[in-house]
Amino acid sequence: MSSERDEIQVVSAAPRDFWQLREAMVSRKDQLPKRLAQVAAYAMANPDDVAFGTAASIAVKAEVQPSTLVRFAQAFGYQGFSDLQEVFQDRLRDRTSSYSERLRALDTHTGGNAKTAALFAGFCDGIERSAEALRERVPVERIDAAVMLLAQAETIYLVGQRRSYPVSSYLSYAFGKLGVKSVLVGSPQGTDPETLGFAGPRDAAIAVSFTPYASAALAYTRQVAEQNVPLVVITDSPFSPLITKDCVWFEVVEADFEGFRLLSATMALAMTLAVAVADARRA
Amino acid sequence: MSSERDEIQVVSAAPRDFWQLREAMVSRKDQLPKRLAQVAAYAMANPDDVAFGTAASIAVKAEVQPSTLVRFAQAFGYQGFSDLQEVFQDRLRDRTSSYSERLRALDTHTGGNAKTAALFAGFCDGIERSAEALRERVPVERIDAAVMLLAQAETIYLVGQRRSYPVSSYLSYAFGKLGVKSVLVGSPQGTDPETLGFAGPRDAAIAVSFTPYASAALAYTRQVAEQNVPLVVITDSPFSPLITKDCVWFEVVEADFEGFRLLSATMALAMTLAVAVADARRA
DNA sequence: GAATTCATGGAATGAATATTTCAAATCGCG
DNA sequence: CGCGATTTGAAATATTCATTCCATGAATTC
């Protein structure tokens, strides 16, 4: 063993972050053997292909042997090609996961300060991604449909438990300010089913709920549907159990971070509805 | 061959585009068997995992058998799971496609009421501007200071009225989930001053309030300060009357649109605090 | 210019993976 | 309640894939 002490010991540090790897590749590109340099060039030019392809398919496109890919990965300290490929995949993967990984890394390496920074940055990014997703997934026509439905309602019932409660309560605040009659269902008192009992076809309801769905929210929504109350649902999947046959539903994908979702996109949608409804009533 | 003409010929139409596939999944979700629906829901919620994972790893996460994934793919006209997976990968591949998709989406989106569209766009933009402002104005060191203060507290009192109430209530939810003892002050019952009376120097409080400051929030905050309770303030101006001499305060500028503020930046800051505090306690 | 190290191509190997198959379970319908 | 059809779970199978190995070729050094 001791006779092998001067073998490859440098292996230890293989960059887990794509940008670190990129830097390593750039800095070493002149010392790299011909074929390995070829691989590096291809990987930099087509990182997406590296992320998804198989060793064989990439080898063909980069015009090298599959074994060269393995050697390349090992030259950078990875165990094999698959190991290196992960780095390329993480680059594309949902950012949240890469963030929580970064957090875990920070946890062991540095003090709490850096961790807070990463946490904060993660939430800031989360906001922006939520905004992007919101724009992509919510069709304006459907907002119009919901507004029409809500504008005709006598009273708007707001259903939202647990995580969704802040949204409902903000809606309640907004409707109040806008002069739209609304009732917040989900108060700490237990009279909610009775309150909801007054709702009828001439009213409307907005239910907000995300996985894991609070059982109460589900029950209330069903009750509302059975009473033929026009319904608007804000949830996180088209497969949500809250969605009934003729409700107007919205899918809102909130960036999930450390198990907590910022409600920014949901809030934005809710506010859009509130303001648009008030506006429609004025006309 | 002709003897097999009446077998499954419907295979022809398998969507090669992610969004088409998505639509197909949504429209067929009610006719799908239980496990296939389960796969559909998982795929919609975690498209990235589907893109990168293996049939086995996805099956575990979606809590089905690998074979079910194959069946699912075939049910939508694909040859097998790998064939379907390509669609999920292409979504992540070159961003250009996702950009053009987004443009196409915008096209169809603008079909509705122009005013609604403007409103919606305004709120979406608002989110992003809030995120930007948040990053700029909040120094990480101060977050650390607040976290330190809160991590030592026995009980964390949460003060937030009216517009800020959703933030406080979400904090209450988050702290509850994270196992941090907290009390939400601002319940519909009028016992708040008494509740706050229990707070002392060994506790801490988070007050959230924006202009126009709810008088109750102001009063509560003063009361808390007088009882020498360490205080963290989230507000919208360095001149806010809530800020006391030795509290840790944050200025959060929410984009204002049509007189309504989305609470996205405030939520993000609040969540950062909550998660960081829970983390600090673990250590 | 010979010897040694290093890089490379190509095939063999063994592990991991998608897919198929079949029996059991569940559901719908008479 | 019982029959057939559909759905589901679990294991068997066949494929694909990453990796290793070894012989050959190129480059470097003495």
UniProtKB/TrEMBL annotation, chains A, B:
InterPro entries: Homeodomain-like_sf, HTH_RpiR, RpiR-like, RpiR-like_SIS, SIS_dom, SIS_dom_sf, WH-like_DNA-bd_sf. It comes from the Bacteria. The keyword Transferase does not apply. One of its GO terms (molecular function) is DNA binding. CDD domains: SIS_RpiR. It comes from Kaistia soli DSM 19436. Pfam families: HTH_6 (PF01418), SIS (PF01380). GO terms for biological process: carbohydrate derivative metabolic process. Residues 19-95 form the HTH rpiR-type domain. The keyword DNA-binding applies. This is Transcriptional regulator, RpiR family. Keywords: DNA-binding, Transcription, Transcription regulation. Coiled coil: none annotated.
